[in-house]
Amino acid sequence: MKMDRLSLPAKIALFVLFGVLLFAVAAFASGNEAVSGAVANAGAEVAQSAAHLGAETGVAWWVWPTVLLFFCFILGIIAVLAGVGGGVLYVPLVSGFFPFHLDFVRGAGLMVALAGALAAGPGLLKRNFASLRLALPVALIASSCAIVGAFLGMALPTNVVQLCLGGTIMFIAILLLVSKNTAHPVVTKQDALSMALGMDGAYNDPATGELVQWKTHRTLPGLLLFIIIGLMAGMFGLGAGWANVPVLNLLMGAPLKVAVGTSKFLLSITDTSAAWVYLNKGCVIPLMAIPSIIGLMLGSFVGVRLLAKAKPTFIRYMVIGVLLFSGGKALLKGLGI
Q1: pTM given for the model
Q2: pLDDT 10s digits, 166-193
Q3: How many domains does the chain have?
Q4: How far apart are CA 18 and CA 291, in angstroms?
């Protein structure tokens, strides 16, 4: 049965099953003898943090996961209406307004971005909106750097990561405000590296019924930028769709639909690399990750249905304002204010 023919309850059931499988993977990683010492120490810290959190807030253990589920449901709706990834909203907002340690928020943020990418990837590849020839060289660079970024983010002090996160979030907000993506960039000549890697292709545009031929240029600067994008994705757990699309579309000249589709497919590779680092360090808590994934996925279904009636421009500016606020809050946290 094709994914796009499944009913809404069936899709929800699939994502709930994904959450259960994610829990099983986390449990398996926690029992792995090779990382048992590190995970045992992390588990002790989690238990101690949970005890302190319960004592400080005076609420039952199930309250925060329930609140997180509904919060992520709203977040999923807003993400679709604003045209941004859920991961880029999840980390700054949850770290700013929930009493969770930043390491656990980043681990859950990668799982959130990864879940959305895995759900969308097969359909995008089938429609040629995601190009393997374009994605694989980029993915090799970005995923390698994401692993380095994840280890770097775990090694740095929390206040330093908070400062870097705040600056990055404010930069993303400004990028969303000023960037103007182009549906069909003009590429007059394909460069030698792009030709050697086969970075070209064609897809049928369902809006016009035309066969769109495309190719890329400025390949080397684009690949170098993905070093920075991979580092930031692993360090902050944001996913990287906010940066992938402008680089693929505005710099390298891929059509907007191909850039968006390839970016979504890229996340399934890049975020997997970084997510294993957080998972093996014990920084992915099922009680955070599963409600977050289920809430965002359900919110995305509702957001798609509301998209025809909503005013995306207003939502987009609202999201930019929220990102600026949460980025400022992260900066203040990092400065200890």
Answers
A1: 0.75
A2: 888 888 888 878 877 677 888 888 999 9
A3: 1
A4: 12
